[in-house]
Inverse folding.
């Protein structure tokens, strides 16, 4: 994939969205005209969808593309201040083209959002073209290497053939030809699928740095009179870091699965079979949100577990955080993505299962749950026996929790409707439950994929340590979400107590293998770019060397002494 998972770069959008969008939505003629020069970096493009006034609500985007049959052109226009394209990466100063998402108007009718290739800068001089006002949106939280920009279009004319027409078309007389499926023009599924793998990489980097550093950092006293212990020997340090390590492995397997699923289903789509598109959309939207939220929080846990040096840029952890955190916002804001998965997939599937439909894919468990509801409940009604050792029984527990929360969300909507609320109000007043249902569904998918992966591991020793990680991931998730399991009657308080005890045992079991498990990510020092995470563990010498190289140390007496301190002293 041409997506660069490392540091943000001005060409990220060109490589990660402009080229893939052409691949997915351009005709063969357009591929010839645009893809080849774009591949050779003659054309440098970005993906300009978000506007100052709208990022999430695509149907609310205001940029227009109005077809003029007399000249066989589209007129691209930003009608209001809020319609100015805002945020696209590489737009400010790097790109000379943009794929602009605009509301298509032809023969007096609006046909919704479509993609148009718009030249924005002269190919030789790089000067903005007539009618194009373009620039950088200014300093951001991070991503300082990327010129996220703004684009205001003032009645800019482009040829008819600049509309990406693999699916929808406009004939020379202005007739609009619908796409085989309206959903094909949404896009973004590719990059959301790739972001799942980026979550895994961010976790792998962060826990490699924190665990290696925790193995070389000695601090305080564990036993009076004895040498200061490695901080990795503290149970609290293990409790912070080993679940992150387990999640890094879990998300690595999920990232592989997501990539494979994307490839499989997008192949079907290119062959004209759109049946799996809803599953791909729901899975990519949900897992993108689930894994980025989890990784975002875990990077901060790793940084803080390194004490003061974690706050130094030499650790690389601040940069990893700053570069990763926008994944919770871009490519679909996480809450909105969770709501998409719940409202457009889980509740719909729940209702189909409730009328006896056999479901396939990641929601097949809802059919099982629906059948279960029809069977008489056991008198005890209590939680099933809990094994803190049996991974398959834990997978089933997560499955039942997901089914329970999907049912709770669906019933909440029903109750709101019975209170007389409109459909829209009923959904909005159930949206907290909808997000919880999506979260539980994604959590089940992650645990299940982790356990499924173990079946593919032949080496007994590797399988054993991965099984310990999988157990820790599942039990830590159970402990962190015990309220859900208790509320669903899937866990008792004594069982919850046993889970906590088992987690402590697993931390102890993992301690001897912790460093080897992060070494296994095989992230070399250049890729980690971290003094604390160095493979040789020679932290202090390199920390001192790193500080010595700081620009402020270029002179023994900084010019600020002469410019400010000395004059200030003389005035006091
Ligand atoms: C190397 C790369 C570096 C990357 C750096 C960062 C680059 C960042 C780039 C960006 O951020 S690009 C902009 C990203 N913006 C978004 O993701 C916008 C999010 N909003 C939406 O996607 C939509 O507004 C919405 C939330 C899905 C709602 O849209 P709408 O109101 O039109 O649809 P619904 O009524 O909810 O659903 C209609 C129908 O369509 C299905 N669907 C929705 N989205 C997709 C999709 N992407 N793919 C397939 N299908 C989709 C949805 O399930 C509904 O289906 P049915 O229920 O009708 O069957
Ligand atoms: C670093 C970075 C790079 C980006 N790169 C690009 C790019 O290259 N191209 C591009 O087109 N865009 C890009 N974006 C823009 C990005 O896609 C949008 O910021 C994102 O889609 C969120 O939309 P928004 O900013 O309008 O937030 P909003 O949608 O306004 O979200 C604000 C709040 O409102 C809530 N909210 C919104 N709608 C709902 C709803 N229906 N239900 C419940 N809550 C809701 C959200 O959950 C959130 O809490 C980038 C953004 C960033 C930060």
């Amino acid at each position: 994939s041409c997506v660069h998972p490392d540091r943000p770069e001005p060409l990220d959008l060109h490589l990660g969205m402009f080229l893939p969008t052409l691949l997915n939505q351009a005709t063969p003629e357009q591929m010839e005209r645009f893809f080849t020069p774009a591949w050779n970096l003659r054309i440098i493009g970005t993906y300009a969808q978000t506007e100052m006034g709208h990022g999430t609500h695509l149907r609310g985007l205001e940029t227009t593309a109005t077809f003029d049959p007399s000249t066989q052109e589209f007129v691209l226009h930003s009608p209001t201040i809020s319609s100015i394209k805002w945020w696209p990466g590489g737009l400010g100063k790097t790109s000379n083209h943009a794929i602009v998402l605009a509301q298509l108007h032809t023969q007096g009718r609006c046909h919704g959002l479509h993609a148009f290739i718009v030249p924005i800068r002269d190919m030789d001089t790089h000067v903005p073209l007539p009618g194009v006002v373009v620039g950088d949106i200014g300093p951001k939280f991070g991503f300082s290497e990327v010129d996220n920009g703004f684009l205001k279009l003032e009645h800019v004319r482009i040829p008819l053939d600049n509309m990406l027409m693999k699916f929808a078309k406009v004939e020379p007389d202005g007739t609009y030809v619908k796409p085989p499926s309206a959903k094909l023009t949404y896009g973004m599924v590719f990059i959301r699928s790739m972001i799942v793998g980026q979550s895994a990489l961010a976790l792998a980097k962060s826990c490699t740095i924190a665990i290696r550093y925790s193995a070389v950092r000695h601090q305080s006293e564990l036993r009076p009179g004895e040498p200061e212990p490695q901080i990795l020997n503290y149970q609290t340090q293990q409790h912070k870091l080993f679940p992150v390590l387990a999640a890094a492995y879990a998300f690595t397997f999920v990232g592989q699965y997501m990539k494979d699923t994307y490839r499989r289903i997008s192949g079907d789509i290119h062959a004209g079979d759109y049946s799996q598109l809803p599953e791909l959309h729901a899975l990519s939207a949900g897992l993108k949100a689930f894994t980025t939220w989890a990784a975002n929080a875990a990077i901060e846990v790793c940084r803080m577990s390194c004490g003061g040096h974690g706050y130094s840029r030499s650790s690389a952890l601040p940069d990893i955080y700053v570069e990763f955190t926008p994944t919770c916002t871009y490519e679909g804001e996480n809450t909105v993505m969770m709501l998409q998965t719940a409202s457009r997939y889980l509740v719909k599937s729940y209702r189909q299962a409730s009328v006896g439909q056999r479901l396939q894919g990641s929601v097949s468990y809802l059919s099982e749950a629906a059948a279960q509801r029809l069977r008489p409940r056991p008198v005890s009604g209590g939680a099933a026996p809990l094994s803190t050792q049996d991974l398959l029984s834990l997978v089933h527990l997560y499955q039942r929790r997901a089914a329970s929360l999907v049912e709770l969300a669906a019933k909440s909507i029903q109750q709101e409707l019975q209170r007389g609320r409109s459909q829209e109000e009923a959904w909005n007043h159930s949206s907290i439950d909808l997000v919880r249902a999506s979260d539980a569904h994604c959590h089940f998918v992650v645990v299940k994929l982790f356990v499924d992966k173990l079946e593919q591991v032949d080496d007994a020793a590797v399988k054993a340590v991965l099984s310990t990680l999988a157990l820790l991931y599942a039990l830590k998730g159970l402990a962190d979400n015990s309220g859900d399991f208790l509320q669903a009657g899937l866990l008792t308080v004594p069982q919850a107590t046993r889970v906590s005890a088992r987690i402590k045992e697993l931390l102890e079991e993992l301690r001897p293998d912790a460093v080897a498990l992060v070494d296994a990510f095989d992230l070399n020092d250049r890729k980690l770019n971290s003094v604390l995470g160095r493979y040789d563990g020679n932290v202090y010498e390199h920390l001192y060397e790193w500080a010595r190289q700081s620009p402020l140390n270029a002179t023994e007496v900084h010019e600020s002494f002469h410019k400010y301190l000395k004059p200030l002293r003389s005035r006091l």
